């Protein structure tokens, strides 16, 4: 069992830039941040085959038990505040 991550570079999201390398990099980064800062939550996402939407300042998840319910996780969204492949000044808002 494992969580599935969707990003703005994911080919499964319509009308977004499709770049498999950037998607993989950000999805890995997002899951690494979760695993390091909230390990029990990381285990929960994987154990429940959660679908995760991750992006700059965005982190939401849904589980197969309630696929129509998406839960925002502001504590995690606040940690996703830069692109792992960019310099900090390139992603400043």
Walkthrough of the structure:
The protein is of the alpha+beta class and 93 residues long. The protein has one domain (4-90). The chain has 3 helices and 4 strands. It has helices spanning 20-37, 39-47, 74-77; strands spanning 4-6, 51-55, 58-62, 71-72. The chain has a 4-stranded mixed β-sheet. The model has no long low-confidence stretch (mean pLDDT 86).
Helix content: 25-40%
Structural class: alpha+beta
- Biggest sheet, in brief? 4 strands, mixed
Following the backbone from N to C, one meets helices and strands in this order, namely EHHEEEH
| Percent of residues in beta strands | 15-25%
Radius of gyration: 13 Å
What global shape is seen? globular
- Looking across the biggest beta sheet, what order are the strands in? 1-2-3-4
Number of domains: 1
Number of helices, counting only DSSP H or I runs of 4 residues or more: 3
Distance between the termini: 36 Å
> Which spans have pLDDT < 50 for at least 5 consecutive residues?
none
Average pLDDT score: 86
Counting DSSP E segments of at least 2 residues, the number of strands comes to: 4
């Amino acid at each position: 069992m494992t969580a599935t991550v969707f990003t703005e570079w994911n080919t499964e999201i319509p009308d977004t830039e499709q770049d498999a390398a950037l998607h993989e990099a950000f999805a890995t980064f997002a899951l690494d941040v979760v695993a390091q800062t909230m390990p029990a939550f990381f285990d929960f996402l994987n154990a429940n085959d959660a679908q995760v939407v991750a992006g700059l300042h965005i982190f939401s998840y849904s589980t197969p038990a309630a696929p129509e319910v998406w839960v925002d996780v502001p504590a995690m969204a606040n940690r996703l505040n830069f692109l792992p492949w960019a310099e900090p000044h390139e992603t400043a808002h």
